[in-house]
Amino acid sequence: MADKFGFKYIISSLRESHSASDNGWSACIMDGKTREFYHSRKYRIAPIVDRVGGGDSFAGGLICGLVDGMKDALEFAVAASALKHTIPGDFNLVSRADVDNLAGGDGSGRVQR
Predict the structure, then answer these.
(1) How would DSSP label each residue in 42-108?
(2) Which pLDDT score, from 0 to 100, does residue 65 have?
(3) How far is Cα 88 from Cα 55, in angstroms, rounded to an integer?
(4) Cα separation of 20 and 13, whole Å?
(5) Is the pLDDT of residue 111 over 80?
(6) pTM of this prediction?
C-alpha cells in the first residue's frame, strides 16, 4: 500500500475474540517511508459492554495521538478504543487523562474503569 498509493502510515487494529464479551485488543502501524513497524501492547477487554464506536474511538485516538509521534499515537488509539468497549452507546465518554492513564499503565493489559 505504501508503494502503490504512497500512504504515510499503514495501520490496522487487531481483535482476538475469546468470546462475545471477552476480547484481546491491539494494533500495528508501519511508517510508509522508513518502513518502521510497531505493534502496540495488547489489552484484554472483559466484559465488553458495547463494541459500537470502538473503531471511531481508535481512529480519533490515532489522529489525536499523531502529534506525539507514531508509537505514542498507536498506544493512545488502542487505549482509547479499549476504554470505549467498556461504555454503552456511540460515544467514548472518557477524558484524555483516562486514556493516558491506561496507555501508560502497569502493563497488565487489563482494562479497568
Answers:
(1) -EEE-S----TTHHHHHHHHHHHHGGG-HHHHHHHHHHHHHHHTTS-SSS----HHHHHHHHTS-S-
(2) 85
(3) 14
(4) 17
(5) no
(6) 0.72
